[in-house]
Amino acid sequence: MTNSIKVAVIGVGRWGVHLLRNFLAHPQVEVVAVVDPNPECLAKVERQYKFTEDVLLTTEWQKLQQLPDLNAVVIATPAVTHYSLIVDALNWGCHVLSEKPLTLNPSECYELCKLAEKQQQILMVDHTYLFHPAVEKGQALLQSGAVGDLRYGYATRTHLGPVRQDVDALWDLAIHDIAIFNNWLGESPIFAQATGKAWLQTAENKSSSSNPLSDLVQVNLTYPSGFQAFIHLCWLNPDKQRRLAVVGNRGSLIFDEMLSEAPLMLMEGEFERQENRFIPVNQQRKVIEIEKGEPLKKVCDGFIECIVQNTPSSISNGRVGAELVEILTALTQSLEAGGKTISVARQN
């Protein structure tokens, strides 16, 4: 492939296989290497895609350094490994697309951002929801004043598993809804508060001495404008929900991922005051038409476009990822302090 962008994918587990699929299908990309510590994962993708001998399949990611003209590295490994992998890739002169969260530490996140800027490399984070057509359309509707003056928001993200053993329900689930709220509002929270409950992996029944992992987390975020967002997270609830709403004085904008045929809805309605009574008026339900398309494909296409144009992503660059890690860190501090309100620290 002439003048193609040579890409290596690190990690082909549950999510990495979808990143690999999209990059293999991209007309400007040549996948030159696949890395995974599990030989069975490598064997599975080799059987599925029938790679030629030109594609390096290895359990040792350091071998990527030996590849000539490698342009970009895509990382879909556990978050605890992200920092060292990204540092190496940037120092090798490669652009990087990392699975979320960028790292588990805000200081590390900003260090990576500065390194990418110094090296003049693209650092992008796969916050897939930010590329969902419903989220993109929702942002435009809110900016147009579709629901009037914004008042508050709420989100619910529940299901029955999978139960993580490395992070709690907060770190596993909340980043999606916080990313959407930040994107829709055009601002980032200044105060964070969280409470939680652990039933499955408590201090008593965990084999290690680490803190219990909350199965249920309730989040309250306060934004500079005064807007508040309430988020309900649980991986111990068979009632699977993926629902987020922003409420204004003239209606609510609702993104319900479980309604696959009509995930974005505008519920109009407001009050008319008659003496000492408030009467609901102008009530109607509107299904918002959105474009079709796989959000992850838009992530991958956007990453390649950023490389070609040598311009950081305006939607999900490294600093967007770092900001989300700052918020999760503040929420963790609140959770560990029994629900104390924590100011969200800001670095640059």
CATH topology term of the largest domain: Dihydrodipicolinate Reductase, domain 2
**Beta-strand residue fraction:** 25-35%
Order of strands, main sheet, comes to 14-13-12-11-7-10-9-8-15
Distance between the termini: 40 Å
Element string (H = helix, E = strand): EHEHEEHEHEHEHEEEEEEEHHE
Instruction: Work out the radius of gyration.
Output: 22 Å
What can be said about the biggest beta sheet?
Answer: 9 strands, mixed
Indicate the CATH class of the largest domain.
Answer: Alpha Beta
Total strands: 15
Mean pLDDT: 94
Short précis:
The protein has helices at 16-25, 39-49, 82-91, 106-119, 133-143, 169-185, 295-309, 318-336; strands at residues 5-10, 29-35, 56-58, 72-75, 95-99, 123-126, 150-160, 191-197, 216-222, 228-234, 236-248, 251-256, 264-274, 277-287, 342-343. The protein has 348 residues and is an alpha/beta fold.
What do these coordinates show?
The protein is of the alpha/beta class. The protein has two domains: 5-126 and 297-308, NAD(P)-binding Rossmann-like Domain (Rossmann fold, 3-Layer(aba) Sandwich); 129-295 and 325-343, Dihydrodipicolinate Reductase, domain 2, CATH 3.30.360.10. 31% of the residues lie in helices and 30% in strands. It is built from eight helices and 15 strands. The strands form two sheets. The protein has a nine-stranded mixed sheet with strand order 14-13-12-11-7-10-9-8-15. Strands 3-2-1-4-5-6 form a six-stranded parallel sheet, sandwiched between helices. Strand 5 (95-99), helix 4 (106-119) and strand 6 (123-126) form a beta-alpha-beta unit.
